[in-house]
Design brief:
By secondary structure, this protein is α+β, with helices and mostly antiparallel strands. It is built from four helices and eight strands; from the N terminus they run βααβββαβαβββ. Strands 1, 2, 3, 4, 5, 6, 7 and 8 form an eight-stranded mixed β-sheet that branches. Helix 1 packs antiparallel against helix 2. The longest helix has 17 residues. The protein is globular.
């Protein structure tokens, strides 16, 4: 199995894997929403605002994760948010998602990223270093439907200090349906 950041030649396969995975787990409406999000991210974002990591085996996309830039008005740290994440249904429960996320977090740290955020299941994301944060720690760009799912971690030594100022996410994520 190979972990790769090459997504241009694999964009259709990555989009299909996200769609199929979300249809299987959450239904056709969620699949369509995530398919549109991933397609928009892969085609509209500048390379410095986007990091795509995939697990590939025998030319098949088994898992994919996407990090996009977040900006805090009064903070100069480099911040990226992990969303969305998908592991092909047949590959779930084998630790592949965790291995891919750990690989990606190390790659982001090596590239000088200071903070990683995500919005999801703390039981899963805590296994890869994320911890619950409050809106005072890092203001989300839109109201959260489930504030308990707001998670973060520092990729530098030291503790997670609050991110200062209002936040802004990339255009494709700037939709209340994702928050």
């Amino acid at each position: 199995m190979e972990f790769t950041t090459d997504y241009v030649d694999k964009a259709d396969a990555i989009i299909a894997m996200f769609f199929d995975t979300f249809v299987a787990s959450e239904g056709p409406e969620a699949g369509a929403l995530i398919k549109a999000l991933v397609a928009d991210m892969l085609t509209s974002l500048a390379s410095d605002d986007l990091h795509v990591f995939s697990a590939i085996e025998n030319e098949e996309v088994l898992a994919g994760i996407i990090f996009t830039r977040m900006a805090y008005a009064d903070d100069n740290r480099t911040v990226f948010i992990l969303a969305p994440v998908a592991v092909a249904t047949a590959q779930q429960g084998k630790g592949l998602g965790q291995r891919l996320i750990k690989h990606a977090l190390q790659a982001l740290q090596d590239r000088g990223v200071d903070v990683a955020l995500t919005y999801g299941d703390i039981n899963f994301y805590s296994k890869v270093g994320f911890a619950h944060i409050t809106e005072a720690d890092a203001q989300p760009p839109l109201p959260l439907q489930y504030p308990e799912g707001w998670l973060g971690q520092t990729l530098k030594s030291g503790s997670f200090l609050p991110l200062r100022g209002p936040s802004r996410c990339v255009g494709p994520l700037d939709d209340p349906n994702h928050w």
